[in-house]
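Sat 14:20. Reprocessing the chain from the morning session after the first attempt stalled halfway. Input below, unchanged.
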Amino acid sequence: MAVLSGPVTTGEKVMPFGRPNLDLASLGYQEKEYFLEGTATRYRPRAGTDLGRDGRWDVEPAGTAPYRTRYVVYRPADDAFNGTVLVSWNNVTAGFDGYTVDSAEILHSGYAYVAVTAQRAGVHGMGEQPMGLVQWDPERYGTLSISSDDYSFDIFTQAARTVSAERSRSPIDPLEGLDIRHLVAFGGSQSASRLGTYINAIQPIEGLFDAFLPYLYFGGGSPLDVGKEVFNPGANRLQRSSLPMIPCRIRDDLEALVMVVNSEVEAISCYPVRQSDTERYRYWEAAGTAHVSLQSMQSRAAAMGQDQGVAFVAAMKGINEVPLTPVMEAAYLRLQEWLETGTAPPAQPLIEFGGDPADVVRDENGIARGGIRLPQVGVPLATNSAVPAPNNPLGFLGGSCIPFAPEKILALYGDSEKYLARFEQATRAAHEAAVILDRDVEPLLREAESAFDRAISGA
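Finished this time. Tokens:
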């Protein structure tokens, strides 16, 4: 059984690594960090089986190892809690432990959020200049240790069990008495791929989670045996990884709900294993978006407060400028409604593919047809797509944004008033389709007012 200690208050930095740049108290939230230690199990395919394309994987224990890691709990006041704990599989693609709490939907709708460091790179970093927890604050995190990502699936299970409805509340209750109705696992990109494997291989054994929300998911699970190497599904398309992703469907015989939210980039990878919606599965993909947007990079650089980060963003001019954020915000709410009322998120149109080999079908402006259409895509001032921008340091992950010439914009819309009327109509349509929340309508409309003038001036 895993052992909890904390809340952790020691260390040179006197704060958890990765904390949001927010006044949590003003939002009614508190932040506490805990250490978790125990013995974790790794898994392998059961003898005579393999990790097949149908996702119905059968695995068995293959060894154990000790570990000591951490997680950070963000919880609202008791009377504001909505009954759902979001358990984040923290992303380590950048070489350090990353998670994102600063979602308006999460913080204004009363979710509890638990950010779990399940992978070795989060603790120890990687490469010649590691940026793991033990390097960031040796005094605080120097006792942490994860020997291999092969144990990450069980580490994640053990962490989640300590914040579930069935948790032991003595001697430490990290959720301090909150009554849990729903436990949801979520994670993006590399973490989504690990969740794909968790759903297909571990959830049938443990049955712990009520729902899963993998996003920016490349259509395959990570291998069970990666050792100390960080598996990165995005590298597969550039043929830079020695650890091939396992293309597969999400298994369809579980009680848990699964909702996948993708940009156009991952929709391309997912197409060969794309599966239809069911009573317990929803798949959303948004045309004209990318794995990373310029706005998301700007937000990340501001949150980190690093000059190098700002300079890095400046070098990314030309990457996609349609954030997936409003769709993700809507997904949190629709999944919560699904859990609470049984009403599934509305099915959404899929991006169109054609040809042999299959590729995205694009309109006369180079914009993908079909899919969820945010207003910046439905009433465009530029071609935003998954097609990589030249000399983009993010490669295909950043997609591209090619502004229309002012003459083309005037020919399409005539003037600012007509453009804004069409943009508002597209925004209201996305809201009616349940992929934009109430709180995001007005900010999108305000942004459009200045976007037209900038586009016409060529700024």
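The domain at 3-255 is CATH 3.40.50 (Rossmann fold).
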